[in-house]
């Protein structure tokens, strides 16, 4: 059976599972031996979809561009570039206020230990159908109301959308543009992307679900901006993923430090706006599995590169019920690719 048929069968089976309303998959290799795109359910190959936290890869690319241009330094404090933003009391751990000392590197590497504003009342409100707009000041207030995860420099990354909201403000201060303007000028125009942008209205493309409930999230996604507010298409996201992985968007020398992996939550490690997935052999009957580098989103979106065998994978389930679902799915896709290569 041709690889494309096997992948189409896999997508259909995934879409037939409970609480699944649409699946998108795009797979490609750098040498062109693999090039597949498919969809099932409510999705079509041209459907735009919210990429959720894959947005953090775009934000990290913009930050590294500004570092290359020496407009910012990763070790400068956030307050030096955002003097009008008061971080006092935002991050207090055991009586010590770490807010004024937070650096851009802390935010980028998710080592600030800041609370994740999204995990407070906002997430509950969304599932209850209450969509709303908010800005950075609201984000900081929501963060203050939550317990911190850890003090900075704990040696571990703690996932927090607050970090990337603040990085968006850093980008705006350093460029004099809105986040979306910087995105268009520095990434989309460079790569010829016309369907990729921060969500601005009510058009989500592919609806987002929690189990079988369609969520009303347009205003929230528009507010997320730098931490999860981009909408794109499978073809344009593939162009970005390859450009990012191949060092076309910033000095390739940055990749080494961006791949400084910290523990996040099993089986994911975190770098600079990047996730790494590498399952231990004891989980796979002592068979080696490919390393995956990229990012996933809470709605089941995923965009990863498997350096060996040099395969790019992306897509979405648009389902918030099982955000880790893409990991097993991508490994099954890579298994089919490997099997097809052996047959050939």
Automatic annotation (TrEMBL):
<dbReference type="InterPro" id="IPR050789">
    <property type="entry name" value="Diverse_Enzym_Activities"/>
</dbReference>
<dbReference type="Pfam" id="PF00144">
    <property type="entry name" value="Beta-lactamase"/>
</dbReference>
<dbReference type="InterPro" id="IPR012338">
    <property type="entry name" value="Beta-lactam/transpept-like"/>
</dbReference>
<dbReference type="InterPro" id="IPR001466">
    <property type="entry name" value="Beta-lactam-related"/>
</dbReference>
<feature type="domain" description="Beta-lactamase-related">
    <location>
        <begin position="11"/>
        <end position="326"/>
    </location>
</feature>
<protein>
    <submittedName>
        <fullName>Beta-lactamase family protein</fullName>
    </submittedName>
</protein>
């Amino acid at each position: 059976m041709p690889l494309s048929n096997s992948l189409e069968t896999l997508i259909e089976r995934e879409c037939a599972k409970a609480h699944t309303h649409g699946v998108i998959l795009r797979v490609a290799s750098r040498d062109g031996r693999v090039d597949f795109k498919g969809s099932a359910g409510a999705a079509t190959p041209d459907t735009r979809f919210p990429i959720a936290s894959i947005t953090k890869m775009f934000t990290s690319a913009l930050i590294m561009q500004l570092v290359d241009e020496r407009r910012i330094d990763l070790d400068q404090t956030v307050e030096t570039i955002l003097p009008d933003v008061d971080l006092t009391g935002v991050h207090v751990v055991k009586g010590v206020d770490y807010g004024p000392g937070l650096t851009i590197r802390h935010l980028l590497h998710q080592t600030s230990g800041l609370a994740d504003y999204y995990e407070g009342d906002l997430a509950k409100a969304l599932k209850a159908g209450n969509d709303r707009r908010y800005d950075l000041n609201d984000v900081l207030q929501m963060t203050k109301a939550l317990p911190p995860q850890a003090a900075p420099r704990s040696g571990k990354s703690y996932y927090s959308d607050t970090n990337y909201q603040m990085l968006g403000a850093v980008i705006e201060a350093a460029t004099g543009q809105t986040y979306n303007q910087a995105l268009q000028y520095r990434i989309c125009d460079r790569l010829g992307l016309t369907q990729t942008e921060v969500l601005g209205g009510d058009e989500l493309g592919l609806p987002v679900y929690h189990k079988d409930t369609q969520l009303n999230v347009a205003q929230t996604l528009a507010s997320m901006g730098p931490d999860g507010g981009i909408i794109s298409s499978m073809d344009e996201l593939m162009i970005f993923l390859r450009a990012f992985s191949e060092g076309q968007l910033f000095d390739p020398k940055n990749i080494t430090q961006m791949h400084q992996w910290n523990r996040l939550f099993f089986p994911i490690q975190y770098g600079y706006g990047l996730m790494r997935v590498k399952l231990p052999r004891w989980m796979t009957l002592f068979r080696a599995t490919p390393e995956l580098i990229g990012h996933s989103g809470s709605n089941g979106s995923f965009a990863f590169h498997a350096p060996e065998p040099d395969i790019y994978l992306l897509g979405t389930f648009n389902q918030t019920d099982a955000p880790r679902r893409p990991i097993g799915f991508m490994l099954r896709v890579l298994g089919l690719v490997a099997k097809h290569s052996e047959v050939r």
